[in-house]
Every structure is written in C-alpha cells, then in structure tokens.
Amino acid sequence: MFLKIMSNQSAPKTAKWPFLLGDVLLLGTAAWVATVAARPLGPWQTVTIVAAVAIGGWMFIQPFLRDHEAASELEELNRLSGAAAQINKVEDAADRIGRASENWQTIQETAGQTLESLKAISDHMSKEARDFQQFIQRAGDSEKTMLKLEIEKLRRVEGEWIQVTVRMLDHVFALFTGAQRSGQAPLIEQVGNFQSACLDATRRIGLNPFAAKPGEPFDMARHRMVDGSSPEAGAPIGDTLAPGFTFQGQVIRQAIVALVVGQPEPMMPDENPSDFVEPEGEFMPSPADTDLDDEPVASAPDPGEDSDPGKPASGNQSFLL
Questions:
Q1: 321 with 249: CB under 8 angstroms?
Q2: Biggest distance spanned by C-alpha atoms of the chain
Q3: Cβ distance 187 to 307 under 8 Å?
Q4: CB 250, CB 279: distance < 8 Å
C-alpha cells in the first residue's frame, strides 16, 4: 500500500525566486561595474563582471537541476516500488503455493484414510455377503432335508394307507363272495351295495380294483398265480381269487387268478376293458408299496362247494364296474 501511494506522488518543486533574485543581483552588479568602471576595464573589473555573470548563470540553472534530480530520484523510487511490488507478488504467490501444498497434503491424507475406510467397509460387506450366502445355503440344505423327510413320510403314509385300503377291499371282496355263496338275495344285495360304496370311495383317491374276466387270456402284467407259477401265455382264466389294483393308472398289484380246469374254448380279450386304465407313466411306489404283493389275500372260494369246478364265481363281476 505504501509503495502504491509513493508511485502516485509527484516530485517536489524547488522555489525559483531566490535563485532568480540572486541572478538578477549578480547581473546588476556586473552591469554596474561595467558602467562605472573607467575605460579600458582593469583586470579586477573584468574578473568581477565575468564572475558575476558566471555565478548568475549558475544560480539561474540550479532550481531546474534540482527539479530534474528530484524527478529522477522519484522515478528511481517508483521503479524500486514496482520491483518491490513484484517481489511482494512473488512472495504472495509462493505463500499461496505453500498453502496449496499443505492443503494438497491434507487432501491426500484424507483420501488415503477414506480409501482405507472404503476398503474396510468392502471387506466387511464381502464377509457379510459370504456369511449370508452360507446361511442361505445351510437354510436351503436344511429345508431340502426337511422336504425330503416330509416326502418320505408322505410316501410312507401313502403306502400304508394304500396297503390298509387294499387289505380292506380284499376283505370286502371275500365278504361279497361269501354272501354270494350263501344264496340269500337280501344279503347279497346289501353286501353288494356296501362293496359298491367302498369302490366309489377308493376311486376318488385313484385306487381302482380290477378282476379278470372268465376266459380272459392270462397276462403276466396284470395276473399272477397264487403259487407264483408262470403259466403259458394266453392260458384262459377261470376265476379271480383276489382282485388286482391300480393306483393313478399304474398297476400296483396283479390280480390273483386260477386257470380254467379242463380246456374250454378260450375267450378273446376285450379290446377296451373297462376295469383297467393303461399306465401313462412310470410308477415309483414308496417303500410301503412294495409290500403289497406280500399282503394276505381274501380267502378264495372252496372249489368243493361249487358243483361245477370250471364255473367262475359270480361275485368277482362286481369289481368290473
């Protein structure tokens, strides 16, 4: 600020009137000496005149010289002031650069701390993600295990109730066969209605019994012998000792049959039997289902009670509804 004020000032002016007054006095003295002195002028008159004129001329130019020197000094001072201002600007710039460097250092340190914090957060999030994924995997595995157990339980229960239902239907079949043997029409009708109601109930859950028609050719896929023997293919069937069963279209137990005693003319098989639905897919029985073949069947009718051994019992036709 001081340098700026100095640069706006002008050089002081020297008072000229004292020098002009002295110059006039000296020139007047020289003129007086030249006027009053005898002619020719003596040495001292000449020296006096020359000295007075010379001193007067010197005194006349002194104020102008002093003004010039002051102006020169002021110009030099202004130059120095400009240089000092430039130096101040350089120092200010250096100060700003220093502060900027300090700020940049602070920014770098803050950025480093931020990066470390972000890295720690990222590591923590990665760990949490891994833990969560492991938890989800464990939960999924546990849920799969529980579902497998539930499926196994359901299959076991399904096999058990199918086994129980088949056993009950075997007894119903034996009961109806016994009623037919008694020859009592009311008893046959009542037991037949009971059997029809049981069959309707089991059909709603997909369990359907079937029996072989008299004279139908023996089929290993649907029939079996009570002793487990394997007769010739196409041997005529004489009677059904125990019905077979299909569950959801799949055969889960073959009908236990007896072949015709003697050699009557074999009956051609029905192309569209109403008691059997062709399987639509592979049936996967539960462990309990595999025991169905070992279940005791209903008691077969005594051949001795029938006057004609080759005549099939009429009770098995109720399973062909």
A1: no
A2: 212
A3: no
A4: yes
For range 56-67, the mean pLDDT: 81
> Which position has the token pair 């007896």?
258
Q: How many CA atoms lie within 13 A of 208 on its CB side?
A: 18
Q: What percent of the chain has pLDDT over 90?
A: 11
Contact predicate 155/286, CB 8 Å: yes
pLDDT digit string (tens) for 74-85?
A: 888 888 888 888
Q: Write out the two tokens for 285.
A: 């029985």
Which tokens belong to 162? Answer: 């199918």
User: How is residue 250 written in tokens?
Assistant: 């799949």
Is the pLDDT assigned to residue 11 strictly greater than 60? yes
Token duo for residue 77: 């001072």
> What is the residue whose two structure tokens read 């009557």?
264
Residue 168: both structure tokens together? 């009950």
Q: For the chain, what's the residue count?
A: 321
**How many CA atoms are closer than 13 Å to the CA of 200, on its beta-carbon side?**
6
With vertex at residue 126, the alpha carbon angle to CA 124 and CA 131, rounded to the nearest 5 degrees, is 95
pLDDT, tens digit, 9 for 90 and up, residues 184-202: 888 889 988 998 898 888 8
Question: Does 116 score more than 70 pLDDT?
Answer: yes
CB of 238 closer than 8 Å to CB of 259: yes
CA dihedral 249, 295, 166, 298 (to 10 degrees): 120
Query: 233-249 b/e with 16+ CB inside 10 Å = b?
Result: eebbbbbbbbbbbbbee
In the numeric block, the tokens 């005149």 are attached to 49
User: Which pTM value belongs to this model?
Assistant: 0.40
